[in-house]
Amino acid sequence: KYCRYHRDHGHDTEECRQLKNQIEDLIRKGHLRKYVDRDAPQGRREQRREEAPRQQEEQQQQQPRGVIHTISGGVASGGDDSNARKAYGRQSLAMQQVPHSKRLRTGGDEEVISFSEADYEGVRLPHDDPVVVTLLVELFTMKRILIDNGSSADILYKHAFDQLRIPADQLKPVKTPLVGFAGLNLLEAIVSTRHLLMKFPTTFGVGEVRGDQEVARR
């Protein structure tokens, strides 16, 4: 089964309730008048009128019943020092306009980072694979690097530092929970796990790093 509306497997397009609700909403707003059969039998019109209260009831049932905070402690950023964490927290309360990076402006036009059907090239669908890439770090080819948006723990084991020839005295212990190493926000990178692709702005346009699906599955 394949749904062309969601571009995913699991149900047929004709069975997609979300698509049907979207079409009904567009009809009510008057956007699809030329597609609506005004001469429809009375029974069909009555059926639609009967379905409307049921749809409203279903929408009401989907309203949240409460709030559950799953993260019980720790910090997102600010470092290991308590004063630095407090200063970082105060920054989030200050309503200030932050100028966006101009690095994307090439030739006077700003390039937009987007993903399309062409980005599925070489990707076997459907899949639930992580984005695993190979990068050149300190003139070493570093393999099996996991790219994520912060939902997973980024672990770099000691033998990786040993192979990078980074002495142990340059490693500093921290007491706060591990956030990550790369700083994806500073890189302005956007990751699409479905496309197994990461895109980021450069002075020459949009750069790409594609994940290795075979390595990810191994």
Automatic annotation (TrEMBL):
Basic and acidic residues bias: start-end ranges: 32-57
Region (Disordered): 32-85
PANTHER family documented for this protein: GAG-PRO-LIKE PROTEIN, OS08G0508500 PROTEIN
Protein name listed in UniProt: Reverse transcriptase domain-containing protein
Species the sequence originates in: Cephalotus follicularis
Organism lineage string: Eukaryota, Viridiplantae, Streptophyta, Embryophyta, Tracheophyta
